[in-house]
UniProtKB/TrEMBL annotation:
The keyword Transcription regulation applies. Keywords: DNA-binding, Transcription, Transcription regulation. Gene3D superfamilies: Homeodomain-like. This is Helix-turn-helix transcriptional regulator. The keyword Transcription regulation applies. It comes from Pseudomonas tensinigenes.
Length: 254
């Protein structure tokens, strides 16, 4: 096991054990774009992590985990203070797990299993004893876990590049975007439908929800979240959040 500080470098691929675990609490950390031969389960115990992929933006709020299959390029950005656990699995152990990046619910059982796995010594024997049982439970829980809608597909059309340069900035209204990129609303709609499976309005609403969750998870006030996501009042923000999630922001945080 490695307890990492903000300036440590770590490469799970240089170890021989089938499972490598790490634990850390990081503040304002950017991993940089990277990939590894192992699959990674990244569990946020406290705080919020934004994971950028080639064609998706992934949000990892508290008590959720991101499954990243082997070989997938990604960048993890952690704002404020993020307490997390991570385990890396050799490709042979990933065969029955999701083949795409996904955000999953962490069941009480998976949460209990992850802690000793993340804290296990790098020389642990994972083929017998309690650690063999922990590994089996972990793989089963990942495979069966409910997936969360925390992925935002990103359009690849070059005309929309300015829109994606600042993923933390509220995307403009459709009429403003038309003027910014010199394309009609119909053209923009076709691009988003083709490349994200959503209309621009649906995509923008999903962005607002994910950004709201990120801000709430990093301790921002309700009024700040409402302002940053483009709502004129706290009540309008609460109504939007509840319409998208079925819960108020306060209930979601709990």
């Amino acid at each position: 096991m490695a307890w990492l500080d903000a300036h440590a470098t770590f490469d799970a691929d240089r170890f021989q054990a089938p499972v490598i675990g790490i634990a850390s609490t990081l503040s304002d950390h950017n991993s940089g774009l990277h990939r590894h031969q192992r699959g990674q389960l990244l569990y946020t115990r406290q705080g919020c992590t934004r994971i950028t992929l080639a064609q998706q933006l992934c949000l990892l709020p508290p008590s959720r985990a991101a499954w990243i299959p082997p070989g997938v390029s990604h960048r993890a950005v952690m704002q404020q203070s993020v307490d997390y656990r991570s385990i890396y699995l050799i490709p042979e152990l990933c065969a029955a797990l999701p083949q795409q990046v996904c955000v999953i619910e962490v069941s009480p059982l998976l949460r209990a299993v992850l802690e000793p796995m993340a804290l296990a010594d790098f020389a642990t024997d994972w083929q017998q004893g309690k650690f063999a049982h922990l590994l089996g439970l972990c793989l089963s829980e990942i495979a069966d876990a409910a997936q969360q809608p925390m992925l935002l597909p990103l359009p690849q059309d070059k005309r929309l590049a300015p829109l994606l340069k600042t993923p933390e900035r509220l995307p403009p209204e459709l009429q403003v975007l038309e003027q910014q990129i010199g394309a009609s609303s119909r053209t923009i709609g076709r691009i988003f439908q083709r490349e994200t499976g959503m209309s621009y309005q649906q995509w923008r609403q999903q962005w607002r929800l994910m950004r709201a969750m990120e801000l709430l998870a990093t301790g921002r006030s309700l009024s700040y979240c409402a302002f940053e996501t483009g709502f004129a009042s706290d009540s309008a923000f609460i109504a939007f959040f509840k319409s998208m999630t079925g819960r108020t922001p306060g209930h979601w945080l709990k």
